[in-house]
Specification:
The chain has a five-stranded mixed beta sheet with strand order 1-2-3-5-7, sandwiched between helices. Strands 4-6 form a two-stranded parallel ribbon. The protein is 44% helix and 17% strand. By secondary structure, it is of the alpha/beta class. The protein starts with a helix and ends in a 7-residue tail after the last helix.
């Protein structure tokens, strides 16, 4: 993930998603093996969950919007996380430009889900910390 974050051609939503991979020790759903997806009766298409921990306990949705994140998207994420993946830890990761409506915040609270905001500065710090930890250079961020 650290190496991917050094790529200059990443779209902002991709940078947010890969930063969440690094921070939360999760795997992009699209990178999971086919047998895992078949176990949960899902495909590689966008199912409303972006990342999963390897044990399936944590489900993550990343949103990079310039404005409000639709409440319907958040409710869908929470349903899929709880009912398809049986996740006990649901986490919405947003950019600093993404805003939540009051009803979105209520839905997250009711589900016991967490919300984390990652801005560009936080992502740079995350990559720098990973470089120090792993004693390698992942490239410029």
């Amino acid at each position: 993930a650290c190496e991917v974050l050094s790529w200059q051609h990443l779209e902002p939503w991709q940078r947010l998603e890969w930063a969440a991979v690094l921070l939360l020790d999760a795997v992009p759903v699209k990178e999971l093996p086919p047998w895992f997806l078949e176990q949960h009766n899902v495909s590689r298409q966008d199912i409303g969950v972006d990342l999963l921990s390897l044990d399936g306990a944590r489900a993550v949705q990343c949103k990079h919007y310039n404005g409000s994140v639709p409440t319907a998207h958040i409710r869908h994420f929470l349903r899929v996380s709880k009912h398809i993946f049986n996740a006990t830890d649901c986490l919405l990761v947003t950019s600093s430009t993404s805003k939540l409506t009051g009803s979105s915040e209520v839905a997250l609270d009711a589900a016991g889900a967490r919300h984390l905001v990652l801005d560009d500065a936080a992502i740079r710090k995350l990559v720098q910390a990973e470089q120090v930890r792993s004693n390698k250079d992942c490239g410029p961020c």
